[in-house]
Specification:
The structure is a homodimer. By secondary structure, chain A is α+β, with helices and mostly antiparallel strands. Chain A has helices at about 5-30, 40-55, 125-145, 170-175, 175-180, 230-240, 265-270, 275-285, 295-300, 345-355, 380-395, 410-420, 445-465; strands at about 60-65, 70-75, 85-90, 110-115, 115-120, 150-160, 185, 200-205, 205-215, 220, 305-315, 325, 330-335, 365-370, 375, 400-405, 420-425, 440. Chain A is globular. Chains A and B meet through strand 9, strand 10, helix 6, helix 9 and strand 11 of A and strand 9, strand 10, helix 6, helix 9 and strand 11 of B. Strand 11 (about 305-315) of chain A pairs antiparallel with strand 11 (about 305-315) of chain B.
Chain lengths: ~475, ~475
């Protein structure tokens, strides 16, 4: 009984899925939180673990690449055919901070499998989606009888994505020769839903800052001094409040400069998706929508830039009251950026705008983390057809629609430095809870990610060579 | 060699001051923080300690008075003359929260004497100023040869002042018979400065609330959801920012209703004080003044009401960044009130004003602590002359000027319930750092407090009887 390539891939995946999940669980136990210095050793352990796993997968090259911050992992598996195109897969092995007391039902670093779900910090963002490529490439080899992938396969898995990838561009520039590729596959995004498989075609950029406002040299009595000296918590609040106008538009001068209008075709692709506000609100754990006036929710999330306060703190936050004028207050802001916005310009505009709003008697410091640029896949690129076909085979021929991603990743740096188109292959769904308590991944979707990865390299070998894919 | 009453008092105080300070230090070691439930046992220990100390001082009655919260201490020492007037001394034995890491140079509950200064939480606010009455009454007896005070002396030392005295009014109402007095002496205020002795003639009232804003059911990804749902930290900031207009006037409707205009005489009394903005700013640990336009700093502090944010918190406040829309945010606000303002009306107005500003999708709760009413001493009351004379003798005949207190205390409840005038006797100075790290008391001033207390009872026995004081 001869097998089709699709059934051969499925058979191989079925035989190896239990071991695959066990290995992923082992990786998820490592709390590779790049934002917290006390976890620096764990981020390194995570990199070492992955490099070893990639060598075991068959990659002849699997190295740790140092940065001034957390290490990245680089792996390479040359195609047999020296003229085969080269594809670079991007992902990250660091994770967001997580603690049981944030609202997790289980320890975020003690993975739990319940039915079809694997709960752990990093299950979906991004260890699960990095790891599906390991079983994917082995299924590709098993189903095709090849001893090396149909394309020269490179992996660059960074360790600082959740900290804004501060050294990523520099890393890519230093290693541009070894990273050279005909296309970049980013596996750090998601799909519309469990029942509507999609391919992402863009991510927003990100600028982040922390602003500290210093008032009195120490907390002072609000009765003895309050009402007669500036209060840094009030100044912090006024700046957050002034960020948006009554139409929820960002007020920082020049913020929207350079953004091309959304085309009718793009708006139609958004509108084709089965958006249901009530179910979206459930996924957002929210009770109402609110955003820039004049745009739909999907347009707000995918095509419009935002300003958000991620944290604010100042003065007494313990039980009961404390009648003080606080000594200081701190605000953490982030700005999601879309194509046409330059992070550097936005940062300068924000810094100037804040400085103008700080009254005499308050000192402030503003510190920006490394910014991430926005990124868009050209809708007419032939490699995008390969990605759509690979997803279609994994999802039993279902129509694959297009989304964008409201989140951010350093994909644009790869596009800029390597001159290669960026494509997205991800199977996470909105309910996976990225950056939230009880992050999880759906195991059946994770295995469809494996399957799409297994199909992708053969297809891309065709489209990237300019010879057309299987259905060309 | 015969002694004058003044030198007899001084001799007695000199002989007993070392033991007096030792005892005070023992009391200050008890961390009687009423705002923190974990210190409830310490507040009780503090009450027990004080009651024992008052019995040792000679008070025939010294009791613990229970409340639904922290206990108060009541003591009574009847005059020999059954027709002598009765004076009630008010103070508090609880203290503000304090922790070494707030910026204290030493442990706030391990008192340190350095030269003329005693550093400890509560050294000035209010244990030191309560305690000076113990040595004061003994010096009074020693200098006059009396075996009981010239007035029937009552002490009510509460245990919840730093928590807004939530049960104080009820306590006073329940015990109104035993508390009956011809005048109330509040020892919970300060003087203008070390070199300008003053008597306080009023305190502001206080309303306090904590507002919690709940948005998403958990922290959610700012890229996936931000800009399309309301952010509770933004809502909190907008409410704090909206509290004041561009003239730094409070915008809550009706906030200023009922406040009588400041008279020219009152403004003159304020203006007579040697106010120096630079040195005041040093005391305030601040770099600039800012407040309601059209008023001097002293007017802002003493005669005008304020709105202040004492604490704000929401979202991620740890190291680095976390790109979330936070699940919730909390704001602690306090309002200083002046004569003419009714705390209940202010609370209703604030609650309504906040409710109007909370957008769909955000839930909020507002909880008010027990309010404190404002309080003013009639400038023409004869007992005020007694206080001024007692202070003048302690301060070697220096002119005693008048101030008010920007802070708050429950004195107005005593005035309302007991129908007695409230007068203030305090020796703390602005640099003592109430509610701040490194709170201290100047020991020489503390002993002048003892001295003023020692002189006051004989003088009040005359003025309150309506027979006039020594110089009448």
């Amino acid at each position: 009984m001869s097998e089709t390539p699709d059934s051969a891939v499925r058979t191989y995946i079925r035989q190896h899925s239990a071991a695959f999940v066990d290995e992923l669980v082992e990786w998820l136990r490592i709390p590779s939180v790049s934002a917290q210095p006390e976890h620096a050793g764990d981020v390194r352990r995570s990199a070492d673990w992955l490099a070893a796993a990639l060598r075991e997968t068959g990659f002849p090259v699997a190295e740790i690449w140092e940065t001034p911050g957390a290490p990245a992992v680089y792996a390479e598996w040359p195609a047999e055919d020296p003229d085969a195109p080269t594809v670079l897969v991007y992902g990250h092995h660091d994770v967001q901070p997580a603690a049981r007391e944030d609202g997790w039902d289980t320890d975020p670093f003690d993975p739990v499998v319940t039915g079809n779900r694997l709960y752990a910090r990093g299950a979906a963002d991004d260890k699960g989606q990095v790891f599906f490529h390991t079983l994917g490439v082995r299924a590709h080899l098993a189903a095709t009888g090849r001893t090396a992938p149909a394309v020269t396969l490179k992996l660059l898995i960074e360790g600082e994505e959740e900290s804004g990838s501060p050294h990523f561009r520099d890393l890519v520039e230093r290693h541009a020769g070894r990273l050279a590729a005909d296309a970049v596959i980013v596996s750090d995004t998601g799909m519309w839903s469990e029942t509507t498989p999609t391919v992402c075609t863009g991510m927003r950029g990100l600028a982040e800052c922390e602003i500290t406002f210093e008032g009195p040299g120490q907390d002072i009595h609000s009765g003895s001094f309050g009402g007669a000296v500036p209060n840094p918590a009030t100044v912090a609040a006024r700046i957050v409040a002034a960020l948006h106008d009554e139409d929820e538009r960002v007020t920082v001068p020049g913020f929207y400069d350079g953004i091309p209008p959304l085309t009718d075709a793009e708006r139609r692709l958004f509108a084709e998706l089965p958006f249901d506000e009530e179910s979206w609100l459930r996924t957002a754990h929210s009770r109402a929508t609110l955003g820039e006036h004049g745009w739909t929710t999907l347009e707000r999330l995918w095509a419009r830039p935002t300003a958000e306060v991620n944290g604010i703190g100042g003065g007494y936050q313990g039980a009961g009251g404390k009648t003080i004028v606080p000594a200081s207050a701190t605000v953490k802001l982030s700005f999601r950026l879309v194509a046409g916005q330059e992070p550097e310009k936005i940062e300068r505009a924000v810094a100037d705008w804040v400085a103008e709003r700080v009254p005499a008697g308050i000192r402030h410091r503003i510190a920006f983390s490394a910014a991430t640029r926005p990124c868009l896949t050209p809708l007419d690129h032939p490699a995008l057809r390969s990605v759509v076909r690979a997803m279609g085979r994994a999802f039993d021929g279902e129509t694959i629609r297009f989304t964008r991603e409201g989140g951010s990743g350093p994909a644009a740096d790869l596009q800029d430095v390597l001159g290669a188109p960026v494509l997205f292959l991800g199977i996470s769904v909105p309910s996976d809870g990225w950056h939230a308590p009880n992050e999880k991944v759906e195991l059946d979707l994770l295995l469809k990610g494996v399957e799409a990865s297994a199909h992708l390299w053969e297809d891309l070998a065709g489209t990237l060579r300019g010879t057309g894919g299987p259905d060309a």
